[in-house]
Every structure is written in C-alpha cells, then in structure tokens.
C-alpha cells in the first residue's frame, strides 16, 4: 500500500504501526488523508479516526479492516462519512477514496 500510494501514485505517505505513532504524526504534520486499520496493537482505528475528525473535521479518514464490523461501528463510520474498505481490497479502490478525500479539501 505504501509503495502503491507513494511511489506509483505520487502521494507523500507516512506509515506507522500504532495509534500513538499516528497521533504524533497527525500532530507533527497534519495529513490530507488518514488511512487507518481498524485493529491496531494499542487500540482501534475507528476511535482514532473519530478523535482526529473532532479536531480536524475536514480531514478525509478511510478505515480498512479484515474484520466483520458490528452494526454500531458501521453506523458510526457511516454517520461520520468514514468509508470502510474490507480486506482484501484492490489498491485502486483505496486510490479512488484517497482521490475523493483530496478533492474535497
């Protein structure tokens, strides 16, 4: 994903492995788009996305997961307009969502 979005598609990509690292990255240099996995070692990506949107409501957040989300999670994501990509997904699907997020800025 990093190679596809960065080298192939020309986006500036910062990859991190934890919510703590993501919070630091968002604080240090606000991204245009936040692509976050639901299941991370130190929490869940939906909570991070919602937290980030409270401070930066115009940020595009995309949630990816291999899990079957509960109805509550799907409703929250839908209400906050957070698209959810189920793994496995085609990288082009992600690129379309990233493009939409960037065009709405």
Note the beta-strand portion.
15-25%
Tell me the number of structural domains: 1
User: How would you spell out the order of helices and strands?
Assistant: HHEEEHEHEH
Q: Which regions contain 5 or more consecutive residues with pLDDT less than 50? A: none
The helix/strand class is alpha/beta
Please give the CATH architecture. 3-Layer(aba) Sandwich
Apparent shape: globular
Number of helices: 5
Q: How much is the radius of gyration in Å?
A: 13 Å
The CATH topology corresponds to: Rossmann fold
**Helicity level:** 40-55%
CATH homology superfamily name = Response regulator
Taking the sheet with the most strands, its summary is: 3 strands, parallel
CATH domain class name:
Alpha Beta
Rounded to the nearest angstrom, the distance between the terminal CA atoms is: 22 Å
Q: What spatial order of strands do you see in the largest sheet? A: 1-4-5
Number of strands: 5
SSE order and pairing:
Layout: H1 2-8, H2 19-28, E1 33-37, E2 39-40, E3 43-44, H3 45-55, E4 60-65, H4 71-79, E5 84-86, H5 91-103
Parallel strand pairs: 1-4, 4-5
Antiparallel strand pairs: 2-3
Structure in words:
This protein has 105 residues and is α/β, with parallel strands linked by helices. The protein has one domain: Response regulator (Rossmann fold, 3-Layer(aba) Sandwich). Helices cover 48% and strands 17% of the residues. The protein is built from 5 helices and 5 strands; from the N terminus they run ααβββαβαβα. Strands 1-4-5 form a 3-stranded parallel β-sheet, sandwiched between helices. Helix 4 links the parallel strand 4 and strand 5. The mean pLDDT is 86.
């Amino acid at each position: 994903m990093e190679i596809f979005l960065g080298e192939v598609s020309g986006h500036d990509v910062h990859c991190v492995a934890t919510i703590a690292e993501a919070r630091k990255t968002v604080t240090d240099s606000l991204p245009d788009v936040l692509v976050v996995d639901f299941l991370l070692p130190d929490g869940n990506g939906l909570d991070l996305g919602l937290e980030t949107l409270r401070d930066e409501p115009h940020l595009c957040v995309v949630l990816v997961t291999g899990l079957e989300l509960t109805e509550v999670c799907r409703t929250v994501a839908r209400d906050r307009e957070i698209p959810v990509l189920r793994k496995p997904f085609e990288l082009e699907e992600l690129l379309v969502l990233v493009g939409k997020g960037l065009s709405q800025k």
